[in-house]
Write a structure and sequence with these properties.
single chain, alpha/beta, 6-stranded mixed sheet, 27% helix
Length: 147
């Protein structure tokens, strides 16, 4: 669970500096919850979808990591807010992505760029496909097309 005070997990996740919390399904904090992350050896996607409320949605990353978030906190809503604050039109923006939660932004920005190792659905909607993130595809695109 990602919150304003850190990441809580039922197992140690050193690369995320997660705080181990053994009390799930009770929530570990009264702070703002940004995202719930679920992973299981079993396919739990259908059960999670049935439990969603009208103000939440989910994405599945890498076919196994379920991310549950508020419908108000999509990446596209964040991008729109940032563009408005900077006075930039949607059609002037370039957006880079690789997974399900990037599709809406790729479709709505003037140039939607997928890295070559993106999931198929992202590759299908992208205006341009650059090299993989492992090979600095985003940096290459920026150097060749923006700078």
């Amino acid at each position: 669970m990602e919150t304003e005070v850190g990441i809580f997990s039922n197992i140690p996740i050193p690369e995320w500096d997660a705080i181990v919390f053994g009390g799930f399904p009770a929530l570990p904090t009264e702070s703002i919850i940004y995202k719930l992350l679920l992973s299981s050896e079993e396919n739990i996607q259908h059960e999670v979808e049935k439990a969603l409320t009208t103000d939440t949605y989910m994405t599945v990353a890498e076919g196994k990591l379920i991310q549950i978030m508020s419908t108000a906190s999509t990446k596209w809503n964040g991008v729109k807010t940032m563009l408005e604050a900077l006075g930039i039109q949607q059609n002037e923006a370039v957006y880079f992505g690789d997974d399900n939660d990037d599709i809406e932004s790729i479709k709505n920005c003037g140039m939607g760029v997928a890295v070559s190792n993106a999931i198929g659905e992202v590759l299908e909607v992208a205006d341009f496909i650059t090299g993989s993130n492992d090979n600095d595809g985003v940096a290459w695109y920026i150097e060749k097309n923006i700078l």
